[in-house]
Amino acid sequence: MSKTQQIALVGTGNVAFHLTRFFLDKGLNLTTVYGRNQQALEEFHALYNIEISTDFSRIPKDTLVLVCVADSAIHEVINQLPTQLKIAYTSGSTSLNALPSERTLGVFYPLQTFSKGLALQPEDIPFFIEANNPTFEKELMKLAQSISSNVNKATSEDRYHLHLAAVMSNNFVNHLFHLSENYLIQHNLSFKHLQPLIYETIRKIKTESPEKMQTGPAKRGDTLIIHKHLASLDGLERELYALFTRSIQQLNTTNEDEL
Amino acid sequence: MSKTQQIALVGTGNVAFHLTRFFLDKGLNLTTVYGRNQQALEEFHALYNIEISTDFSRIPKDTLVLVCVADSAIHEVINQLPTQLKIAYTSGSTSLNALPSERTLGVFYPLQTFSKGLALQPEDIPFFIEANNPTFEKELMKLAQSISSNVNKATSEDRYHLHLAAVMSNNFVNHLFHLSENYLIQHNLSFKHLQPLIYETIRKIKTESPEKMQTGPAKRGDTLIIHKHLASLDGLERELYALFTRSIQQLNTTNEDEL
Q1: Which CATH superfamily is domain B160-251 in?
Q2: What is the DSSP string of B152-205?
Q3: Tell me, what's the pLDDT at B115?
Q4: Given CB atoms, is A185 within the 8 Å cutoff of chain B?
Q5: Residue of chain A whose Cα is closest to the Cα of B199
């Protein structure tokens, strides 16, 4: 990846927010952030002192454009961009062959959860790259390698499956933390008591399979506790507790670990 | 906690396994591990060079006995122990007033997930203490403080609620990792790609509320992706995906974060 290659971003969400910082930190030639939301663009200008624009037609040809918008907007945004641009998008679940094949198109997918205001080191983020043109694929690989040491080629199918697993391992996991926090607050207890447990949950699966590390009443078949817990919950929390219990018992049969 | 106070453990599961190591490491006077499973007892003897016995009637009076057995066995085990012992159990969900009140009884509850063979530092483990006698409660507080710097008094109700929240934040979270791993293996992809994401999921909630950190298709209301994902799953995985989506949408309405 030549440091003189002009790069532009389209989008003002969290992915654009973090990629902008990664590129600027690594001294890459990111020139302009494009978007439709003037207020969000001004935040980028204020934070990064970078050029901003709402006029997609002004993007100079031969610019490498990273489209960081929601899946539902990718196709429409690409259609609005001038031809002769090299375009990559950052989504997990949109297939490359669902987009106009006459364009030079690729994928630049960081498998990570991004929140504004929470700084992140890019070096460990796994990037998954794909393109409809081998030269562009190499260029995207090099761009990713200039910010991360964990860069992989992946088909659209691979990327889709990784995104689905990420939804389970991040979105759903975070939601369980949210439900736990709400439950404890209702009972005047602090969520911070769970932090060492949560940290240990993650530490275990760095070296061991989650299958081996499963513990708890569902795993032990402790019906007494399961019924008590179900009686303390209602609504969707209760449905989730019951469904997890069934799912854990379906997958686990023999281990002896304990919570 | 006097270092000369004799301590005995009853139980040969993972809690007993880890408490034995914590007590011995701190130079406490743990004399004997009691249990009914001779083979498991012999593992304790081999690993820790500690006395083992299947004969509960031999426990000397004035011994502090920690009963580390499943909730369903606590009552029965206590009935088999000689009177004049000080007894504490390590369970989250058994209420102190459900047990014989004429005994000197207490609770010594470590809020952590324990697996054999995976060493753990005790200093950060939150302990929750309760007793039916103020002197014994102080003694249990001191015992916990001799291995951990995070020791709290808690009622049986508090402990019950903490255990339920721990089931959600550990057991169910680990099961989601298990399902994610299975899903990726089915598609010839490695679970290790998710490790940086999982680590970041945890890092975020050290400083921010899980509510603020929720991201993903359910949160964004990205119906297109949700339907694709549902179509790729079946059985209980599909039911879990649908239920999480409803639950996330019920609790979250306004944030803009992205996965």
Answers
A1: ProC-like, C-terminal domain (1.10.1040.20)
A2: EE--HHHHHHHHHHHIIIIIIHHHHHHHHHHHHHHTT--GGGGHHHHHHHHHHH
A3: 87
A4: no
A5: A202
Using CA atoms, how far apart are residues B163 and B7, in angstroms rounded to an integer? 25
pLDDT tens digits along B61-109 = 889 999 999 888 999 999 999 988 999 999 999 999 999 989 999 999 9
What value, to the nearest 5°, has the Cα angle with vertex A181 and ends A180 and A187? 95
The angle that helices B235-251 and B223-232 make with each other, rounded to 10 degrees, is: 160
List, for residues A47-66, the tens digit of each pLDDT value.
999 999 999 999 998 899 99
Tell me which chain B residues have a C-beta less than 8 angstroms from the C-beta of A169: 176-177, 180, 194, 197-198, 201
Q: Has the ipTM of the complex gone over 0.95?
A: no
Backbone torsion region of residue B24, taken as left when φ is above 0, otherwise alpha when ψ lies between -120 and 50, otherwise beta:
alpha
Q: Does A221 touch chain B (CB under 8 A)?
A: no
- Domain B7-154 sits in CATH 3.40.50.720: yes
The first and second tokens of residue B214, run together, are 């929720």
Q: What is the pLDDT of residues B19-47, one digit of tens each?
A: 999 999 999 999 999 999 999 999 999 99
- Residue A190 predicted with pLDDT over 90: yes
Task: Answer whether B14 sits within 8 Å of A218, measured CB to CB.
Answer: no
Predicted structure pTM score: 0.92
What are the sequence ranges of the domains in chain A? 7-154, 160-251
User: How crowded is the C-beta side of A36, counted as CA atoms within 13 Å?
Assistant: 7
Compute the C-alpha angle B65/B68/B71, nearest 5°: 120
